C-alpha cells in the first residue's frame, strides 16, 4: 500500500450530462484497444445504473469509461452521465490506470506493462514498489522494465518509496550523506540524521561509530561495489505487536488507549482482507474509497512521525 499522495486527477462534484458527440476517445491505458464483446454487453444495460464516466474538463477526453461511451454510441444515446476531473495528461493517465486496475474490465498484462513504462517515464523518481502498486505488477517486473527501456530517464540520486520518503539509490551514498551531516552539524540527533539521509537508525549509529574511530563511513565491501538497492527497514510482525499492546494495562485502562487498540485491530483486519473488501465495493464508489484510503494513509503516516518524534533520542 502506498503511504503518500501520488499526483492524480481531482474529481469535481456531482455527475453532469454531456453530449456524447463532444467526447474525445484515445489515450487509454489499454494498448490492445476496446473489447467489442464488453461493449456489446454494456449496450444492453440500462445507462442509468452504470457508473458515470470520467472526463478531463479542459479537453473532454474520456479518462475512464471508453467502453461505456462506445456502448452509448451503439444505442444512439445523445448524452451520457460524466464526472469532470482536473489534472495534467500524466495525472489523468494515472487515474485511468488505477480505475482499470480496481474495477471494470481488467487491464491485460501487456497493458499493465506499458502503463508501468509510461509511469516510470513520467515519474522516474518513484521506486519500483510504488510503480508496481499502481500498475498491478511485481516490483521485479517494474525493475526489469526500467532497465530494459532506454527512453526512461535516470532519476538523480534517490527514489521515493511507498511511505513517501526519498531514499538514496546507493547505500554507500546514504552513509556518505550521513557522515557529512554529522560533520557539519555535530549536535544533530541520530534520528534526524537517519531521516535526512534516508537510512535506518542502526546505519546512522554505525556511521557515527566509524567516524568516531577515524574510519570511513562506508565499509570497504560497500565501497568496492556499486549498490543500487537501498537498505530495507526490518519487517514488522504487526499481529505480534498488537497482541503485546492489547495486554498492556496502561493502554487498556484509558479511553484513548482503547480507541487506539480498536483502530489498530480494525486496520489489521481490513488490510488482511483487502481483496475481499475491494471486490465488495461498487464501481461508482471506488474513487471515493480510494481518496479516503489515501487520506487515512497520510494521517496514519503523520501519526507515526509524531510518535517517533516523541521517542527519546538514542545516544
TrEMBL record:
SMART domains named in the record: ParB
Coiled coil (residue ranges): none
Stretches assigned to the ParB-like N-terminal domain: 16-101
Signal sequence bounds: none
Region of interest: Disordered: 148-167, 205-232
Composition bias type Basic and acidic residues, residue spans: 205-228
Protein name: Chromosome segregation protein Spo0J, contains ParB-like nuclease domain
Organism of derivation: Amycolatopsis rubida
